[in-house]
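Hi C.,

You asked whether I'd gotten around to modeling the 204-residue construct. I have! Everything is below, sequence then structure, no commentary in between.
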Amino acid sequence: MRNVFFVGDELVAGHGDPKALGWTGRVAARTLPHATDLAFHTLAVPGETTGEMTSRWDEEALRRIARPEAADEPRYALFAVGRGDVTRSVSPTMTRLNLANALDRASALGFATLLVGPPPGRKDENQRIAELAAVCEESAARRSVPYVDMYGPLARHDQWAADMDTGHDALPLQAGYGLMAWLVLHSRWHAWLGINDAEALNNS
């Protein structure tokens, strides 16, 4: 068994999605037919900052693979940064430190890591979210961790804008979560998991 952890906030939990799948559920559903040995775990805390995420994710993940037989099983941690650092005024310097700590801790524990940046939100916050996304991309590059940019593609997408105008609390609806899932699936997701990328995308 290979354990994959989605670590993040309410967007990882899929809040606001009428299908109750979120982007993580959609990604898992599209991936499992090509890798039936994967077990997905969602570790979501709504509204948290990168500091809060960094302080709690490892204990939560390790509890789920504490079985003796899981000691040698491959493990993966996807960190999906939300907008908490913007809404709660965390400085870019602290964000960088928090992400460095999370990625370094994951490496020390033997997790393969992938970092997903924040998507656009409220119009009055989007400039700061764009800056947060840039910090995330830089942090991933410094540690040669694959990165998925949510902000750039979605900031220019009409359907995403419609979801932001229609939904509540800057949460996407069904279409928005589908767009987020598409971005992950068409990133380095399959290569990260050791799945044939072309075959998986053609058959999804």
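If it helps when you're writing up: The first strand starts at residue 2 and ends at 8.

Thanks,
B.
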